[in-house]
């Protein structure tokens, strides 16, 4: 089990294993968040939070929502608005310990234009 936490500790996200790779997306929101996304199935991800600690943000076509901490502002994950056990969830790997993230390959995704990987 691997745990990601926000800065203040009010939210933690648990996943079953280290990511094989992470994605650095340059779309309008991901580049602002500075996140590195590790992908897991929804059924594999557990978010635990203090009461009233989670704030959700959705924009545009509202297909995804981003969960962040109301207290410290850390973006923890994104989820599809409609989820099932096989739906992917993006967990912000920057919230894992640096020793985990530092050894994982990074893929570059052109989310701003082509939605193709270019690195």
Based on CA inertia axes, which overall geometry fits?
globular
CATH class bucket: Mainly Beta
Number of strands: 10
* CATH topology call: Metal Binding Protein, Guanine Nucleotide Exchange Factor, Chain A
Second rung of CATH, namely the architecture = Beta Complex
> Class by helix and strand content?
mainly beta
* Strand numbers in spatial order across the main sheet: 4-9-8-7-6
What portion of the residues fall into strands of 2 or more residues? 35-45%
Q: Biggest sheet: strands, sense, closure? A: 5 strands, antiparallel
Q: Uncertain regions: pLDDT < 50 for 5+ in a row? A: none
Indicate the radius of gyration in whole angstroms: 14 Å
Distance between the termini: 29 Å
Mean of pLDDT: 95
- Tally of DSSP helical segments: 2
Q: Please, could you describe this protein's structure?
A:
The protein is globular, with a radius of gyration of 14 Å. The chain is built from 2 helices and 10 strands; from the N terminus they run βββαββββββαβ. Strands 4-9-8-7-6 form a 5-stranded antiparallel β-sheet, with no helix packed on it. A 3-stranded antiparallel β-sheet has the order 1-2-5, with no helix packed on it. Strands 3-10 form a two-stranded parallel sheet. The protein is mainly beta and 119 residues long. The chain has helices spanning 30-33, 98-101; strands spanning 2-5, 11-15, 22-25, 37-41, 46-49, 54-57, 64-69, 75-80, 88-92, 106-109. It has one domain (2-109): Metal Binding Protein, Guanine Nucleotide Exchange Factor, Chain A, CATH 2.170.150.70.
């Amino acid at each position: 089990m691997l745990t990601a936490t926000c800065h203040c500790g009010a939210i933690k996200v648990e996943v079953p294993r280290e990511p094989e790779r992470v994605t650095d997306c340059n779309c309008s929101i991901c580049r602002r968040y500075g996140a590195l996304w590790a992908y897991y199935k929804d059924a594999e991800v557990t978010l635990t939070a203090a009461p009233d600690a989670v704030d959700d943000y959705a924009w545009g076509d509202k297909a995804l929502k981003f969960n962040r901490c109301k207290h410290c502002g850390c973006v923890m994950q994104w989820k599809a608005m409609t989820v099932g056990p096989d739906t992917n969830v993006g967990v912000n790997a920057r919230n894992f310990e640096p020793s985990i993230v530092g050894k994982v390959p990074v893929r570059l995704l052109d989310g701003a234009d082509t939605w193709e990987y270019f690195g």
